Amino acid sequence: MKNVILISLREHLKALKLSSMASGIETHLRQAKESGIGYDEFLLDLATTELQVRAENRLTRRIRDAKFPLLKPVETFDLNAVPDLDMRLFRDLCGCNYIKEHRNVIFLGGSGTGKTHMATALGIEACKANYRTRFISGYGLVNELLETRETRDLTRIMHRYSRYDLLILDELGYIPFSKEGSELLFQVLAERYERGSVMITTNLGFADWTQVFGDPIITATLLDRLTHRAYTINCPWDSYRLKQSIKEKK
């Protein structure tokens, strides 16, 4: 009789989409009997496990959907290698309040200075806070938009990029865009203005962004919107990768 009840209970839990409760019911029942806890504690333990598993699964989905090229959490970033970094600001950004406030973050600096690593780390923190996040290179996004411009998918793709809580554009400025590519990227970023956060890593100072977008009017308008209430983090230090290479050769 007990087995019949257990089977029915498991099926009911599955029907209610409480899969973790269903799979762990036998273990929790055994532990409850061994420890002699009451019904209320038993149900609390069971519900807590369900919530923990759901949170873990949600984080896994968020990180998978963000499409980070490499998983580089905050713990892996060598803060000693960037002594000029504003540590207080960086830690504040880890708290993700800038996303809640729809503010942008822009990393300016040369190659190898850790811009992508920091952006990835902050993106992972955003996923942990359950924010919809997407990581893509600036050139990759423009290519995706150009490839779909002749189809009905363009509107859908642009709408999708407007809905992320945090859009991370990596390596903006390494490759200049065509006129049409610049206009499409402008539309995406304009749609996100004060609706969602944008994080950008670039090797160019603001005065040189015309090299990327071509049109000075588009560049000026875009900069005006991106830098409005944005956090700008300058990375003037030497390339970390270059220093590592020199050290290894000695």
TrEMBL record:
Keyword terms, alphabetized: ATP-binding, Nucleotide-binding
NCBIfam families, sorted: IS21_help_AAA
Residue span(s) of domain AAA+ ATPase: 101-236
SMART domains noted in UniProt: AAA
Protein name: AAA+ ATPase domain-containing protein
Gene Ontology molecular function terms on file: ATP binding
UniProt xrefs under InterPro entries: AAA+_ATPase, DNAC/IstB-like, IstB, IstB_ATP-bd, P-loop_NTPase
BP terms from Gene Ontology: DNA replication
Stated family: Belongs to the IS21/IS1162 putative ATP-binding protein family.
Gene3D superfamilies: P-loop containing nucleotide triphosphate hydrolases (3.40.50.300)
